[in-house]
Each structure stands twice: as C-alpha cells, then as structure tokens.
Amino acid sequence: MNKVTKQNALNAHTWAGVFLSVLLFLVCLSGTIAVFHLEFERWEQPHIEEMENVSPEAVEKAMDSFLAKHTEESHHLFVVFPTSDIPRLVVENDHVAYFADGEGNLLEEESVSFTQMLVDLHLYLNLPHSWGMILVSALGAIICTLVITGIIAHKRIAKDAFKLRRGGNGQQAQIDLHNRFGLWAAPFHLIIGISGTYFGLAGIILMLVAAVNYGGDRDAVVDQIFTPDPVLAPQSGKPAIGKAFDQMKTLAPEKSPIFLTVHEVGEPEQFIEIYAKAPNRMIYAEGYRFDTAGNFIGVAGYEHGEWGKQLLWSMYRLHFGDFAGMLSKWLYFILGVMLTVLCVSGMEIWLSKKAHPPLASRLWYSIVWGSVSALAVTAVADMLFAGSLIAVFWGVMLLNIVLTVGIKSLTKPVWLFVSGLSVLALLVVYTAVHGNATFTVSSLQLNLPMTIYVLWSMWRGLTLLKREKMNHAENKSEVKPNLYDASHGESVNL
C-alpha cells in the first residue's frame, strides 16, 4: 500500500484509540477478568458443598423443597447441575436461587453480587442494558477497526515481526511490544471484536433480516435460530424433573447436562428442557425436551443444525473461551491481558509523543491502575456491607480522579503500589470473612493469581520508581548552571 493509505490508517488508528481509550480499557479489563466469571461465583461462597454428580432423587427433592419455600409466581424453574462448569447443585426460579447438597437439602441462598457487577461492567459498562449493550458492541466494532488499521499502518510487518528493542527510557520497547501484541494476537482480537459486536447488535440484525426476507416477521427469524417450543397437548401438574434427568444417562451418555429449565410454569404449554454440553462441539449446548410427565419429546437440533445456527450458538463459548476447560480459559485470559495491554500502551505511546503532559498522564494511570483498586474495594464492600456495588465501583473511580487532580505525587509507580495494596487488603478481608474456606479449591484458584498480582505490582512499582529517580538524576546532572562574573565579564560553567 502507498504511504498515503498507511498514514490515513495510522491517523484513524490513533484517534479512535485515544478518544475511546477509557471505555476500551474498561471493557477489555473487565472482559479479561470475567473469563473466570464462573470461578468468581464459586469464590464468593467458597464454603458451599461441591460434588461431581447428583442423583435424580436429590434433584427432585431439592426442587420440591425450593417450591415449598418459594411460592411466588414464576414463568421458569431452573436446576443447575454439578456436571456443569460449577460443581454445585442449584435450584431457582426467575427471582431467587438456592444451593443444595448431594442429598437434595437446601443450604443457603446464592449470592454472587460482585460477579454480577463485574459481568455487567463488561457487557453494559454498568449502564441501562438496552443501550449499554449497543455501546459496548460498538466498541467491539472499534476493536476490529483498530486491528485492521494497525496492520495496514505497520510499515514492515514481516521484518519487525519479532523485533523487541530494550534499553533507553523504555519508550521504544513499549512501541515494539504494542506492535508485537497487536500483530501476534490479531486473530483473537478480531474474534473478540466480532463476537462482542454480535451480542449487542443481534436485535438490530434480527429486525433488518426480518424486514428484508420475512416481511417484518421477527418471530419467523427467531424460529430459524432458536427451535420453536414444541406443540403439546395441554399440560398440568408438577413437572417430573427427576424422571427427565434420569433419562439423560441413556439418551446422551456422552454429554454433560449443564442445566434444566421448566418453561411456562403452570401454563398448558409447560415443558421441560435439559441443556447438555456436546463433546467436540463449540455450540453452547443441545436441548433435550420432555413433557410435564417427563416423557422424552425430542431434541432442539442445535448440535446438527445448519451451519449458521451452529455458528450463532457458538458465540458465547467463542467470546468467553469456555470450550476446553481451564486450558482455554487461561489462554483467553493471557490473550485478554495482551488486548488490555494494547489499550494501555497505545495511550502511553500517544502521551509520550505529547511529552507526557503531567495531569493527563496521571489521570490515565489513575484510571488504569485505579480501576484494579476500585474492583478490589468493591469486592471488599460486598463482603462487609449491603448496597449498590455499581455505586461503590464508580464512586472509587471518581475519587481516584479527584485525588489525582489534587495530589501531583500520584504517579504511575504510586498507583501500582495502591492497586497491589488494595488487592492485598481484599485477600486479608476475604480470609477473615471466610476462615477455613479460604483454603478450598474454590478460593485458591483465584486467590493465588491475586497474590501473584500483589507481588508483581510491588516489584513493578519499585522498578519504575528507581527508573524515575535515575532519569531525574541524569537530567539534573546534564543541566549545568551558568554563572556570569560581572567583574571579569566571563561565564563559568559549574
């Protein structure tokens, strides 16, 4: 491509990244952490009994106990099986959820407020869902734009593919790292951007497809993607969920049941559907349908449906990396860190080209590292107080900005220390609140990485602090005062 095209691509890449840097960073950071949203649900209540499987009798008993306790009207009933990615038995309706033990006895109400806030931050930026999703999806499209324009603007992709220069003030190394991460992980970043765009714009796409091909009938489009509810004789009575679940051992012995849904509870069209993870398939699940009496009706047809239907049903696992256990989740976490680093380094490169304006630079560091502190403080608040976690998170973010404006010493190393100390405080409070449960798998699988972050942030903060002192000393030594001797008319360099 000619120089003009590359320069235009670079301009578009730069200004899109700069103007949307804060929103892009928050979406990427929260998304990277939310890869482990199921692990965070376990982390929030680490003392709950966990199991590998459960009997149909225990499932039936747990739901009966739940319905006796909660008689409010609900259109759905749910059972989350321990064969899902959360090894716990959960029974719930549209309003409340309870854990149960392996015998089917109810334990306590499910409380995953922090996880919900974190996922809400990623999906909607904690805005009203209707237009928060559209904004985040638009940011997904911006990510795709940044990837494409970054590749176009790169002058020597093949030659510089493995270049990583060190030394100096670190600016050149940061530019090289930004370019390497942007190039190496470009396929992943495009997948994240495209799938993220799909989630928010699916409704708009649905309306366009309906208008063009189905005379405006949106239900007809939905039926092409989501298999319509079965047409049954009027149903009545208590749904036989235990009987339906027991049949999965013969209907799909190779599949892992994830959860069960009773649709249209108490209505004539009531039916049971069990979603099971299909091995070697990217789709979220295949649906097995039963009538109220627990008699098998048929499958929803997602596993062997048309390629378009399979693609759409794969978007969740494709976006969150939930398709090969912890291996794929950790891979997505690492690649997500790379995407987040791209947001940070891109903005810091721009700031360096502007000679690091003091206030703008400090504000950026307060957002980047202060957001980690805000998440840690929000998690602590969730354990100690009742209230809006969204208000806590954004309140801390606002406080960070106010402090940064007023205190000039809040530089990047200081914010690294603050973020590390905040996570350390979270770990201390978590241990005090949960006691022995702190040493369960549910806790350690997240607490150990948090401990590593505390150690890294302290080491990195000290490294940057030493570098700042060395640069300051070098700059000071290079400035030689010039004294003018008026009596002799000579200048003396000191």
TrEMBL record:
InterPro entries in alphabetical order: PepSY-ass_TM (IPR005625)
Coiled-coil ranges (or none): none
TM segment ranges: 12-36, 131-153, 188-212, 330-351, 363-381, 387-407, 414-433, 439-459
Keyword match Hydrolase: no
Pfam families assigned: PepSY_TM
Domain of life according to the entry: Bacteria
Swiss-Prot/TrEMBL keywords: Membrane, Transmembrane, Transmembrane helix
Protein name per Swiss-Prot or TrEMBL: Peptidase
Lineage: Bacteria, Pseudomonadati, Pseudomonadota, Gammaproteobacteria, Alteromonadales
